[in-house]
Design brief:
Structural class: alpha/beta
Shape: globular
Number of strands: 13
Strand order of the largest sheet: 10-9-8-11-12-13
Number of helices: 14
Helix content: 40-55%
Length: 336
């Protein structure tokens, strides 16, 4: 598995054997970066041969994954490539934004033995582009129910105390990279239509300029009921369990796994509508709502409607549909 900041190779016959290597740095020193790539490539080839690797699963179209898929093809290793973001790594976008880098990404998709799509939206772009159905698998991301699960109110307040969040607040949470694509600035606009006991919690690493723009808006509009946790959190499920409702205003996604994680914690969702993605998630009325009307006032009205709906029933139904335990069999079949 190759993913953003790390390079991981799974041995086909023993999926428990995982080897991780450091991903090449983002240094501006191009000599150092070239040496990083050279070292990573050298180690990768050794591992491919040493472990008689049969399968390379790339979880992103990234510069290092393009290079490693090229080596794997030469060595006769089967290759599965996952698509994860509409408007970024889907084949239609890559063909329209016809840069040299995107041509390399598109080549990786064309020569892949199989393409793994995490949502209906991504699957449809592949069909529209011209890939045959037999080359595609549509399979949503499946969170681990041992990590994301419902907690009762007593435990919720204990978690809030550990995170310095008042038990008297109604907590709206948005988890994910804080950036313009995720559109968290929009969520500040809904607060003017909500009582002061509502608290907006933004959790995730972010773009400095975008976070600064959020802070400027907070200062300009005198907004003091927002907490920003702008760093990578390893126990993000605690913030989820401490909250009452999940709010999402992203402009585009590949799937929106974080919404499924919220549901598995028993938390209802209020989100702006995402074509062919909302349909994959909104499978039961208790799960919340996806809004076509994007006005902040309408969003706030639906927050008030659903903020008391947190319950174990949502968690139970979400687990029965989305959990890794339920979907593991299909995933294993794909690898086989």
């Amino acid at each position: 598995i190759c993913r953003a900041k790390k390079l991981t190779i799974m041995r086909y016959h023993n999926l428990n054997t995982i080897i991780s290597l450091p991903y090449p740095s983002n240094s501006n020193n191009y000599v150092l970066r070239f040496l990083d790539y050279f070292l990573a490539s050298f180690l990768f080839i050794i591992i491919l041969v040493r472990y008689n690797t049969r399968l390379l699963f790339s979880i992103t179209l990234w510069d290092i994954s393009i290079l490693l898929n090229f080596y794997a093809k030469i060595l006769g290793v089967k290759r599965i490539t996952e698509l994860s973001l509409v408007g970024s790594d889907d084949p239609l976008t890559l063909s329209i934004q016809n840069t040299f880098y995107n041509k390399l990404k598109l080549y990786q998709l064309k020569v892949a033995n199989h393409i793994y799509c995490v949502s209906t939206a991504l699957y449809n772009t592949c069909i529209e582009f011209g890939f045959e159905e037999k080359k595609l698998t549509k399979k949503i991301n499946s969170p681990d129910s041992n990590i994301f699960y419902y907690v009762n109110q007593k435990r919720q307040f204990e978690i809030r105390e550990s995170l310095n969040i008042s038990e008297n607040k109604i907590v709206l949470i948005c988890i994910g990279r804080i950036c313009s694509r995720k559109n968290q600035l929009y969520l500040l606009d809904i607060l003017q239509y909500l009582p002061s006991n509502y608290l907006l919690l933004l959790v995730g690493p972010g773009d400095k300029e975008y976070i600064d723009s959020i802070r400027r808006k907070m200062k300009h509009d005198n907004i003091n009921n927002v907490i920003i946790v702008d760093k990578l959190i390893t126990d993000v499920q605690l913030y989820m369990m401490a909250s009452d409702i999940f709010v999402f205003s992203s402009n585009r996604e590949g799937f929106g796994t974080v919404m499924v994680e919220a549901l598995m914690c028993g938390i209802p969702i209020v989100s702006l509508y995402l074509k062919n993605i909302s349909e994959d998630i909104f499978l039961h009325p208790s799960f919340g709502t996806f809004l076509h009307d994007k006005s902040p006032h309408n969003f706030a009205k639906n927050v008030k409607k659903f903020h008391n709906n947190k319950c174990e029933t949502i968690s139970f139904k979400a687990k029965s549909i989305f959990s890794a335990e339920v979907n593991d069999f299909n995933y294993s079949m794909l690898l086989n």
